[in-house]
Give the backbone structure.
Amino acid sequence: MIELISQTSKLLGVPELSFRECAGGDIYVTLPEDQFREAVYKLSEEFNLISLFCVQNFSSHQGFTLFYAFEKAGCPQVLVITRPLAGAETTSVARRFASASWYEREISDGFGITFTNAYDDRKLFLHEAYQPGFHPLLKSFRNQPVTTRKDILPGEEYRFRELKGEGIYQIPVGPVHAGIIEPGHFRFSVIGETIFNLEIRMFYKHRGVEKLAEGKTPQDCVAVAESISGDESAANAVAFCAAVEKISGIRVPLRAWQLRTIFLEMERIYSHLGDMAGMITDVAYPVGATGFYFGCEIVTVAAAESAEPERAVAKATQSVISRVLVFYVGSILVVVTIVPWNDPGIAQPFVTSLEVAHIPATAHIMNAVIVTAVLSALNSGLFASSRMLMALALRGDAPKSVSRLNSRGVPVRAILFSTAFGYAAVVMSYVSPERVFPFLVDSYGTVALFVYVLIALAELRLRPRLEREAPERLRVRMWMFPTLTIVAIVTMLAIVAAMAFIPEQRLPLLFGTVSACVMLGGYALRRRYGPSSTA
């Protein structure tokens, strides 16, 4: 603390007696206007501006007082310079400290203070719909319903920065979003996938939180802090309590800090999981993610070979949910708990998590996990394809020989035939890697949707017949039939139709449609020229 005062005193040419230490160890100094302007240039060489706020009628000064909080690398204390204003106009420091721009715009909206020489004087949280002269942080203002403007001239609208050039497009997003998040408008300037500029405009809602807290006790203000944002209730409440405790010189018991840490971590994990899910949805990845859920129907294929199919299906369905929670959600939970979101190692989250836990040979462990997962997927794929091939053979749609079973009831020939196709795919990936693998990746998601549509259509047609002819065979019933089945069909078809309007999904839609047309064409030829079905 003494060292910071000594260094700052020499840098600014201010006597050390002018500095004072406040609660928490922060250093305060008050500078008149002429000294402040000179100090800004000197401070910009060694300090960073981390906060700027305004208070009206602070202490004995009748008027506005600006508080500039500076941080110096390697120094735990914060330097706070108070700047009493003679009126409602002062000079901007944003050209020296770019971080001051938003703070100055906020103060200008809230208190009506004009910052001269500012490079950005646009409104921040008070949009053009508010009446001129409306400044809700003034002492004279009382929280009450306000009358907004209805007719806003084009020249009064918010000015977004525009990048001009050949091929540059402006893409507006928001402020209304499909969710309960705060409204926000995002203006992208792009050429293809490259984003040259992003400008964000927030604060479409002003609830008067600051004025609501005025005059209340710290205990009452905790509830106000908690209600600022549902995503950060614990964070805002802890931040407010920490500020009050620092001002009051209160030492918090260790158990209180432990409880706060638990709540903060739980909230952080929840927020990160929600953000990741939202980002996946925002980039239209659910269509591409279809393949990760494609394969659950294998459960019913396997259950058909069990002694009690209805119990097997129910048990397997429940296990799918629990395994997703444990292996998918659980693994992400572990990662976001251990690895900070801005850590460069997040590019390899599982390896980084193991390294943080000081587990040796992390690369080998992850390779073993990946190989095991690939072999598991291969095993389930061979199982499903061999059973499907056997079913086709029984119906006369494939050679009869592949339907034969060995002494243990296993369709060995069907498995070998399916394995041969796997080897053929491997050979093709070496012969034409730039075409085969992209084709499979781009087509399987759409084909999966088509398969699910056909499954739902089959249920819609066959279940009423089964209920009439052999109701005892219908052991596992889909609830809310046929309403839920129809809703599922319409929803999946809507997803397929939406892919046509998403540029990144048009190629997968084309490949998937071509694959489906080939299968339908083969089925039509089989119906017309092939032998009659034997099953």
In short: Residues 432-535 form one domain. The chain has 16 helices and ten strands. The longest strand covers residues 47-56.
